[in-house]
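The records we work with from here on pair a chain with its fold. Here is one such record, which you should read through line by line:
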Amino acid sequence: MALFTTAEVRSAALEAVGTQSDILTESRASDHLANESVKQASVTHFDIFLSHAYIDKTIVIGVYSILRNLGFSVYVDWIHDPNLNRNFVTPSTADVLRKRMRQSDSLMYATTKSSTSSKWMPWECGLFDGHDGHVAILPVVESSFASYSGQEYLGLYPIATKNSYSSGRNQLWIYNQNNMGSSVYFDTWIRGNNP
């Protein structure tokens, strides 16, 4: 089982924005996101709603890029709905997010060191679980040798990882946290087959 690592997703973010530097500047990230927003403006159905802590913006760009490269359509609020004002959150903000969750087949809960400080992530997880039930935890860990241990209620959900087919091509897998030997491909899981 291969969890997503911080170094891997940061590298994917740097590659996505086209910089060779080890530092992803806010202006370069903003330029990339503006371009991505224009490309994604008309998308109304998503394979994955990516629940995340906004403070992890660079990590989110990397996870978004990796998932897109695996062939998935991925919703990220500040990419698809850049007009949402994070400094002035209203009930209409929640309504937009609820609408976008209903347009998504699954919710991936991207856990990092920062995710416990998010006020929105638990709400998104609970709402999506009650609406659809296809929720998976997508841990982003510090090293490839790290294991995942999250908040207690997150133990209810399977874990999303990336592994290779026998051909070497990466694929998103869903693992049962209580039986890590039990896994299915994302596409199989979405059709209702649980690990």
User: Anything to note?
Assistant: Helices lie at 6-17, 26-40, 57-69, 77-80, 91-102, 120-131, 186-190. The longest strand covers residues 104-111.
